[in-house]
Amino acid sequence: MKAYYSTAYGGPDVSHLGDLPDPVPDNKQVLVEVKAVSLNPVDYKAKRGDLKFLTGSKFPKIFGSDFAGIIKDTGKEDPDFKPGDRVYGVAAVIFGKQGALSQFLAVDRKNVWPIPIQMTFEEAASLPIGALTAMNGLNRTGVTEGTRLLINGGTGGVGHFATQIAKARGAVVTVTCSAANAGFAKSLGADTTMEYSPEAFASYSQKFDAILDAYGHMDLKDAMRMLNKGGNYASTMLNPFILVSSFFIRIITSKKLTSANLSSKPSDREEMERLFLEKKLHPVIENTYTLDTAAEAFEFAEKSKPRGKIIVRI
Asked: 3-state DSSP call for residue 312?
């Protein structure tokens, strides 16, 4: 099969488009003919070696987590899937498992779901990590109708989903973004926008019931100052210092600090699909690449600040 693979951790100089053996699924896996892959920050971080304690030292290694495609083989009689089914899911690139940037992928059944009939491969591949991370962050901060919510980085891969989901729930949403993206944020449903510079945070007097730090780099002092008493803050990049501090902060201020990460709850995926079918949630795809230009896709994902998602078609 054709694959975009790496022979070591690093950049494009250690990555190649070439032939690798077709994967053979074990009895817990299905074989998927991959049609589309979306890139997330976790993918380029894994590729450059930030997560090698999880991804291991075995090479060649294929990266890319979110995928959509067609079931090629179930390996055994399966009540849920059959060859030809359109599916999407997450390939966990850990403990020697391969990612999705290839023609074929052997992936655990539990991480594969049917694609709703109205959804394209590109749309389906865009959803899992970004939308389910957003969903979990909103759940953990208790966002419901009337919640006054701040989303830091509300136009990126996670943030643009969070903005739409929060509005669908009836929240009052303020989004941080660049001035150039303010109109885009409003089109997603943001009620108000603000720049995400330290100066903007320092001068902002609005208080919020919940803050979702989709960008992951909000200063904790700003977050605590901008939260109402009893408010909740969730970050996609909660560092160890904040985890240790969270217990004491909650006792002293009644403010809760927690993480926003990928949720595997079926109820979250069901809500995500329902909102898509109701046209209240749609993935925004900024750039589309092909497997032979995957190096450019990784460079754009890492060095730019994409609006929405980046897709690699296989």
From this structure: strand
Co-location of 253 and 292 in the same domain: no
Query: pLDDT (tens digit, 9 = 90+) per residue, 190-219?
Result: 999 998 877 888 888 889 999 999 988 888
Look at residue 251 and tell me whether its pLDDT is greater than 60. Answer: no
Number of domains in the chain: 2
Whether the pTM exceeds 0.85: the reply is yes
Show the DSSP H helices in 278-312 as ranges: 294-303
Q: How many residues does the chain have?
A: 314
The backbone torsions φ and ψ at residue 22, rounded to the nearest 5 degrees and listed phi first, read -60, 140
Phi, psi of 308 (to 5 degrees): 80, -135
Long-range contacts of 74-81 (CB under 8 A, 24+ apart): 74/25, 74/30, 74/31, 75/25, 75/26, 75/27, 75/29, 75/30, 75/31, 76/27, 78/30, 78/109, 80/109, 81/30, 81/109, 81/112
CA–CA separation, 29 and 37 (whole Å) = 19
Q: Based on the fold, state whether residues 296 and 201 are members of the same structural domain.
A: no
Query: Cβ distance 49 to 9 under 8 Å?
Result: yes
User: Is residue 117 packed enough to be buried (19+ CB in 10 Å), middle (13-18) or exposed (0-12)?
Assistant: exposed
Are residues 63 and 180 located together in one domain of the fold?
Answer: no
The answer on pLDDT for 247 being more than 60 is no
Pairing mode, strands 112-114 and 86-90 = antiparallel
Left (φ > 0), alpha (ψ -120 to 50) or beta: where does 51 sit?
alpha
CATH number of domain containing 204:
3.40.50.720
- 30: its two tokens: 């299905």
The CA distance from 58 to 91, in Å, is 17
